[in-house]
């Protein structure tokens, strides 16, 4: 070996740095490049939740609910991690129990975490970490429908129950070897994550009940700059969300990242343009909603569609969810009867279904083959393999649409029914909704804390330490006598 250009070069494999060769802690099956990217991608996914959605939720709600909303996200992130490694990972990706779920088991032992993952070239620990990030953000997205009134004790019970009885079913059914896996195109979670969170959030919002009347009529964001910061974490974190789905540093990962940002930018611009055209004023909240619908819509097809298709998907994700949220929601008695705080049904369920259906149309057989191979044991090989052999440009799109609709129907019905049962069960133990007196107060009643403990917020006198530093020549501040 020689030292050349700051790298050790191996004569047996010329040009390959020694650091990339197998060693005692990295067996030959472990691809160090893939593992490094996967750890990075998984961390980007987790950053979408903490701090991304923590900041977004904390800034997007009324000031009196900032702490509660952010804390709901933080709690869910921690609770999902423990449930994931104790039983939920194996229910999602483990040994088959039946056609919709795996056998519960620990994902904690060295004998499990340090073996090849189902994709063969990264450790199982890496795979568990990445899939945890997906599970956590699903529950946190669901929380967006429930902000501003759910009893925190009820939320503490809801998170592990919903993860166990809903998320694991969707993940196993479509990704883990269940009955829908051979038929459904869901590259990174349009159905498993976004449709399920949108439907479950809307359903839970029905059972929890509405916010306080005044809050529902007047619910301005308390910090738009923080809201934009959280949205930025969400958008940039999606690089790992879709870029990590192939579990390899390959052409599909690169294409998925480019498609993700193209679709998102298009969707945001379309949403803002519609706001300008119909309301004569652009909205920061609207821009964030358009950003989210673009991210959601491209997710089920990010690595298997062409960039021009991503532009079409972005155009539709910026317009159809805009219509359901801004027009249909206000006219529909059904939507008005359920208080979906942040409109999660529109941004995730509607955009998720839209993306899933469009992925069935635009997915290219050549890209599907690169992603899954033909007839593989772990991807949608059966249907994809048939389409790859068909020789048509985009496969049998109409036939695939039928499978996509069936998958969407299963996820929708399962989440609506089981989420209802979970809420009914919890409601028999604790109140799902905070009482009216606490709803009027908000964070101080729920947690004994306020988001902004600033001087002057209800205080009549300056703190002694601050009073000593103010000149006697300035007897008043903002017209109020303090000295």
TrEMBL record:
One GO molecular-function entry: ammonium channel activity
Keyword Transmembrane: yes
Keywords: Ammonia transport, Membrane, Transmembrane, Transmembrane helix, Transport
Pfam families to which the protein is assigned, alphabetical: Ammonium_transp
InterPro entries: Ammonium/urea_transptr, Ammonium_transpt, Ammonium_transpt_CS, NH4_transpt_AmtB-like_dom, RhesusRHD
Tagged with keyword Electron transport: no
UniProt domain Ammonium transporter AmtB-like: residue ranges: 37-452
Subcellular location(s) per record: Cell membrane; Membrane
A Gene Ontology term for the protein's cellular component: plasma membrane
Transmembrane regions listed in the UniProt entry: 37-58, 65-87, 127-147, 154-175, 187-209, 221-240, 252-272, 284-302, 308-329, 341-363, 403-426
UniProt feature coiled coil, ranges: none
Family of this protein: Belongs to the ammonia transporter channel (TC 1.A.11.2) family.
PANTHER family membership: AMMONIUM TRANSPORTER 2 MEMBER 3 (PTHR43029:SF24), AMMONIUM TRANSPORTER MEP2 (PTHR43029)
Name of the protein in its database record: Ammonium transporter
Organism placement in taxonomy: Eukaryota, Viridiplantae, Streptophyta, Embryophyta, Tracheophyta
């Amino acid at each position: 070996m020689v030292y050349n250009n700051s790298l050790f070069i191996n004569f047996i494999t010329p040009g390959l740095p020694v650091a990339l060769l197998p060693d005692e802690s990295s067996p030959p099956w472990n691809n160090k490049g893939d593992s490094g990217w996967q750890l990075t991608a998984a961390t980007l996914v987790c950053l979408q939740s903490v701090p991304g959605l923590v900041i977004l939720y904390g800034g997007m709600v009324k000031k009196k609910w900032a702490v509660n909303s952010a804390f709901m996200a933080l709690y869910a992130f921690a609770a999902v991690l423990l449930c994931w490694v104790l039983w939920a990972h194996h229910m999602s990706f483990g040994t088959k129990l039946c056609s919709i779920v795996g056998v519960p088991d620990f994902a904690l032992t060295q004998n499990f975490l340090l073996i090849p993952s189902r994709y063969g070239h990264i450790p199982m620990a890496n795979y568990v970490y990445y899939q945890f990030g997906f599970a956590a953000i699903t529950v946190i997205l669901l929380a967006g429908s429930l902000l501003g009134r759910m009893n925190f004790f009820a939320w503490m019970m809801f998170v592990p129950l919903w993860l166990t009885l809903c998320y694991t079913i969707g993940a196993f059914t479509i990704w883990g070897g269940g009955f829908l896996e051979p038929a459904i195109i869901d590259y990174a979670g349009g159905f498993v994550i976004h449709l399920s969170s949108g439907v479950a959030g809307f359903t839970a919002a029905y059972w929890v009940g509405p916010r306080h009347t005044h809050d529902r009529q007047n619910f301005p964001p308390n910090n738009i700059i923080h809201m934009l910061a959280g949205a930025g974490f969400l958008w940039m974190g999606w690089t790992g969300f879709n870029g990590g789905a192939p579990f390899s540093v390959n052409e599909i990962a690169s294409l998925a990242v480019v498609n993700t940002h193209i679709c998102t930018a298009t969707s945001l611009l379309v949403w803002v343009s519609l706001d300008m055209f119909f309301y004569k004023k652009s909205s920061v909240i609207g821009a964030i909603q358009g950003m989210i619908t673009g991210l959601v819509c491209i997710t089920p097809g990010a690595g298997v569609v062409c960039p021009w298709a991503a532009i079409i998907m972005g155009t539709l994700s910026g317009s159809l969810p805009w219509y359901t949220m801004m027009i249909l929601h206000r006219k529909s008695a059904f939507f008005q009867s359920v208080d979906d705080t942040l409109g999660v049904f529109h941004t995730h369920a509607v955009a998720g279904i839209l993306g899933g259906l469009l992925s069935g149309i635009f997915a290219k057989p050549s890209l599907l083959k690169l992603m899954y191979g033909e007839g593989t044991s772990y991807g949608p090989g059966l249907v994809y393999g048939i389409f790859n052999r068909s020789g048509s440009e985009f496969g049998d799109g109409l036939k695939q649409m039928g499978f996509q609709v069936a998958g969407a129907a299963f996820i929708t019905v399962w989440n609506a029914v089981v989420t209802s049962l979970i809420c009914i069960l919890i409601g028999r133990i604790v109140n799902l909704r905070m009482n009216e007196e606490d709803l009027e107060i908000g964070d101080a009643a729920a947690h004994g804390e306020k988001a902004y403990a600033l001087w002057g917020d209800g205080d009549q006198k300056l703190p002694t330490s601050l009073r000593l530093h103010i000149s006697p020549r300035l007897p008043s501040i903002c017209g109020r006598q303090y000295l």
